[in-house]
Amino acid sequence: MLKLIQNEWMKLWYKKGTWAMVALVILFIIGPGIMLKYYDTKNSEDISWKETEQQAINNYKEMLAGDDLTPADKTYFEEQIAISEYRLAHDVPSQNEGSLASFMSFTSNMLKLVTLFTVITAASIVSSEFSTGTIKMLLTRPMSRAKILTSKLITTFIFGLFLFVVNVVVSVIVGFLLFGNGTGVELEMVNGQIAEKAVWSDLGYHYLLSGGDFVMSTLFAFLVGSVFRSSSLAIGLTMFLSFTGGMIVMFLSRYEIVKYIWLTHSNLTQYESGNPVTEGITMPFSLTVLAIYAVIFLVISYTSFMKRDVTA
């Protein structure tokens, strides 16, 4: 098995597209980092943090005066006003701009790019063998089809984790060089009291929850690529569901079935705010549903690959 994984890993890095993916992940961190540094430097020369906080208070008060505010929006605006007033009263600047932590929080959104590239790899790692005809040569080895498919799946996830590490490491380096550790603290409202926010633990929790969409999207793309032998179909269908998943869930929200489709649960970051997209679901329930779908995706992938006639 290890030999198969090594072989798949070597074949993956033999492709120019793999190097391009890594380069793009790095560029999509360095580029925005330089832009953020430029605007942060420019803004810091024009306005102080106290003026920024006072402006934020005024803006939130204007929003509170608007009509058709939901209770959740009203609570949010009131909390933000209280936090800004606390900063001004106690001379506590924010880390929202110009800090390593804030930059890391920003680049955590780039994990969607990591997921996209992993999906592309998952979609093509099996289908490309059929399109090029190399699958016949691969199956002549004294290895079972199950082991061959498993090696491809493991390689895909290893590559995805590699991109994740690149994202985090480059973000730390670029953030530290451009912004340093920064000053100030993050605040949040906890049970009606203003408290210092645990920025790094919250960021780690966000990274962990982002794994839900990463795993499910990869498994679904692997499934479509294995069954239909079309990487373009797998990539297109997976991306379509990723971008329209929220609308699909919203459309089905009036029906009980929405609780039992994987699109409702794949974005586990919905639990960060404590407001899941659908009422009546919890983290354990979402993890259970995702686990069931993961098994279904794998069973279909392996069954199709094991029974396929490669001589056709």
UniProtKB/TrEMBL annotation:
The chain crosses the membrane at residues 20-39, 113-132, 153-179, 205-225, 232-253, 285-305. Keywords: Membrane, Transmembrane, Transmembrane helix. This is ABC transporter permease subunit. The keyword Transmembrane helix applies. Pfam families: ABC2_membrane_2.
